[in-house]
Amino acid sequence: MAKLLFFGKLGDLAANREVDFDLPDSVSDVDALINHLATDNADLADALRHPSVRVAVNGDIVAKNSAISQNDEIAFLAPVSGG
Amino acid sequence: MIEVRDTPFSPTEALKTYELNTQTGALVSFLGTVRGREGEAQIDGLYLEHYPGVTERSIEKIVSEAKARWSIFDPLVIHRVGRLSPGDPIVLVAVSAAHRRDAFEAADFVMDYLKTEALFWKKEIRGAEETWIEPRADDYKDAARWTTEE
After folding, report:
1. B140 close to A (CB below 8 A)
2. pLDDT in tens, B87-138
3. Which residue on chain B is closest to A12 by alpha carbon?
4. B56 with B1: CB under 8 angstroms?
5. pLDDT band, very low/low/confident/very high, at B148 (cuts 50, 70, 90)
6. Comparing C-alpha atoms, which of B23, B149, B6, B10 is closest to residue B92?
7. Which of B5, B92, B134, B138 is best to mutate for the A interface (most A CBs within 10 A)?
8. pTM given for the model
């Protein structure tokens, strides 16, 4: 199972901030994952596609066309506001 | 030392224990606190979220970069997460060095990173209303200074 995390305002759009997710075989990169999520939650997918949203796979920030696999931890990062 | 914590801390106590060695000639510190007002609106508090493990590692990386760019000793970075009230310390950055220019610039650099890149998400709380904060254009302008200047 992959683990999906939604940070900041993205957590409000997702049903849960942390989700265990069975990646379908057809989903091999982050963009494809977002398109798959759109079938249940179009608003969330739209937000995830925004260029200001970054993605981290297993703790490293990567491009949205990066490959993902089962057992990955995929975190969607809203624009940050620390400090 | 880098610490992300969900309980209050005392900036003065933290600075007292920040060890100065015999080569230190300068100590610069920055303290960020929770504002009680944003323009016209009264704020009841903030809530800060982070990505445990990943946030700390990203701060470690920027501290390493600061140490590579300036002649400084190991900085102190303490950042709160969780529920905060107006007046509460949010972030303390302290940098010691032999000379003040290195200390000032490294502290500024680390703060700009914490405002624009570090993995924290802030929510403003006003009564029943909670709003995630968007970054300010000024913060990005400030952070850009470090890439265009040498």
Report:
1. no
2. 999 999 999 999 999 999 999 999 999 998 899 999 999 999 999 998 777 7
3. B132
4. no
5. low
6. B10
7. B134
8. 0.91
